Amino acid sequence: MDTQTTQASAAPPVIRREDYKAPLWQVPQIALEFDLDPAATLVKARLTVTRAGSHDRPLRLDGDGLTPRAVSVDGKALSAGDWRMDDGVLIIALPGDDHVVETEVEIVPASNTQLMGLYASGGLLCTQCEPEGFRRITFFPDRPDVLSRYDVTMRADKAAYPVLLANGDPIEQGDLADGRHRARWVDPFPKPSYLFAMVAGNLACNADSFTTMSGREVKLGIWVAENDLPRTGHAMKALKDSMAWDERTYGREYDLDVFNIVAVADFNFGAMENKGLNIFNSRYVLADPETATDPDYDAIESVVAHEYFHNWSGDRVTCRDWFQLSLKEGFTVYRDQSFSADMGSPAVKRIEDVRVLRAAQFQEDAGPLAHPIRPESYMEISNFYTATVYNKGAEVIRMMALLLGPERFRKGTDLYFARHDGQAVTCEDFVKAMEDGGDIDLSQFRLWYSQAGTPRVTVRPSYDPESGALTLAMRQTIPATPGQDVKQPMAIPVKFALFDPATGEKHDGEEVLLLTEAQMETRREGFAQAPVLSINRGFAAPVIIEAEQSAQDLAFLAAHDDDPFSRYEAMQQLMIHALLGSIAGGPLDSAAVIDSIRGTIADAALDRSFVAEAVRLPSEAYLGDQMQVVDPDAIHAARDALQREIGVALQKEWRAIHAECARNGFSLSADARAARKLRGVALNYIVASDAEDGPALAFDQFDRADNMTERQAALAILASGASGERAQALAAFYDRYAGNALVVDKWFQTQALSLHPDVVEMVEALGQHPDFTLSNPNRARALYAAFAANQWGFNSKDGKGYRMVADAIIALDKLNPQTAARLVPPLGRWRRFDDERGAMMKAELERIAATPNLSKDVLEQATKSLA
Ligand code: TRP
Ligand code: ZN
After folding, report:
1. Any ligand 1 atom below 6 A from CB of 32
2. Which of 102, 307, 380, 725 is an active site residue?
3. What digits encode the pLDDT tens for the residues 189-210?
4. Global pTM?
5. Which of 357, 413, 484, 720 could serve as a FRET partner for 245 with CA atoms 20 to 30 Å apart?
6. Sheet holding 180-191: strands in order across?
7. CA 232 to ligand 2 centroid distance, Å
């Protein structure tokens, strides 16, 4: 077969933001009836449609894989000539302006491996509609600017599906003949189809309640398999904390009488904010000390908050079209980040968020898939649920909050919610509300929505001893990105402070300066000696700072900066300088790094959780990002050597910390969690020092731990070594948790991430393990997404890593295109590596792109990655 022609003829259309047109028909009301059965579910839909404006265009109802069994208008069955199908779309010419259109289809949840639409997971039937899954359930104008009131009736076998849930409020339920039963749910809030949800199954409920600020009682339910019920407490606490926080912080009250969360084992993403019925990947619901790590607990808290916050930023005010995705996602990520900061340590939360941004978003912004937070075009919108739209989008909101200050920012959000409640709006509407409510001009700031690429800000301080003045010369450049060769200067908040090197004190507080030109200079006076510059404090702007800072200045900031992010950053920079110097062929100059680490662990005033962050070396991948051409082997060797030197030089300190941080009895207190984190870092350095008893010490921690945080940390350390304890620990871990899917995922993931010379062969073997399956996205990601993030292993010189991931993409695409497409970007980094590696990566992308019958999800990612 000639694949070239096949693909050319099937080339999916490109959707452009500029082509947006308002809907020609609205659907104020929809009644749905489901006769649920995994093998054949009957879906009857009754749409009240109204013509929008005056035109003579027919009604177009999106469908994906649907065949109409019956179509009627105003109660009269249509004959075949009265409607037609065009590429899945059902087209009906309607004479008047108001009609009732009824359709009937049959769908097969059991064979829905894409996990979009109505599908089976374990014994459950559940839905995922965002972004375009509703059209796999019934014919409908499946776009976010069509808002409808939903009236949903579910019928199912009562023994197999005793619980029937949908959006809104439960209205009636009752038994039917043949062991079936029914439930009817009505959602009073008009919503777009992507927020529709429904779940049927045998579920147990953690039931609780929350009294809102106006005194209404809301029934809360977290629905899981009966034996998971003891693992739902943390999610419930997070939900109640989120509800109270959104009232306190944004004045947002919950609006229905019930709020339900359901956990499902097979899910393409983290979770989904369906109105009144959030559906979660079970990994973001279930936790107990034996099976979940402290980072798992944190992730549950933030994802529960994220989905809850969407009730206002997403559901009550939704997106006009999918190009506006960051309207809800960037804002909601900003909201969940602020919530988590308030619930724990703001300093550590900021460090973690910046680490994620740099690891995922900066890489995306620097590669072939770079796009603005408001993209201009797409082939498949599912490919745009990205770190750029989510995390850079959150940074853009954060900058507006900084420029406005807390009070005016709140005025802006109040105005946004008041002005647009019940509407489907744009990013422009959000910025306008910030301008009007916050009384600020954001004209130039809007470039953050349209220009892709991470700005580089060069800051050159020069001190004149004569006048005692410091001049800061600043320059911004924004690199070219696909489709955007030339960029305009952006409005970049530069947050800085100056320190007196003699006293360690800060001069005159900190300042926020708005860099609006390509080049700008600013002058400050009155310094007896050259001050030390602390720049981009708190990581106020999502940019790369290029400041020529001496090792001495960095060491000073690592010891004295009162902005915890900048203090952390100074240590990272010291480590990076040492490592890049040795990678470039110089000696490994570890002295300054070791001194700073020694000073940091000795500083009793510092939060131990911060200390754990600050003394850890940057990841191999982040080091790669600092190089012109990534050399995975050199990076690994240098980082390994520095880790060893730090381990040896501070052996006594690490041993002391490891002993002191041991606790009797488990607690989730901040102190206990910090101790566990720092203990893991200490153990890592002890083992890295090649101390003879290192592996035994790690195995002992692994074996005696009363919690997953310490057990998993020890396992990861052993997995990256060659000791006899490695195999022993992996086998013991598997035996202990066999059957617990979320923990078995950790077992796969820990091995895929391990820095072991044979990791490629190990991952290859794990792909054949009886517990491995591509049909569960968590399991597929635990092995292949983790491995693709393992810079040393994935980029092994023989190209085996590339081939393995490409094989996985091709195989997974047949089952689940969305999840397959998310594995493509690591291969798209081919320009970042040497010619041999680059050629092998490219060859794999070409092989993927040439695969017959590829989904548009993978096709878009593979072809763009090659361009
Ligand atoms: N709106 C969801 C969130 O961010 C994202 C999401 C859930 C999603 N499921 C999805 C995106 C499936 C694409 C496909 O909270
Ligand atoms: Zn979201």
Report:
1. no
2. 307
3. 999 999 999 999 999 999 999 9
4. 0.98
5. 357
6. 76-77, 70-73, 98-107, 41-51, 25-35, 148-157, 180-191, 169-175
7. 21
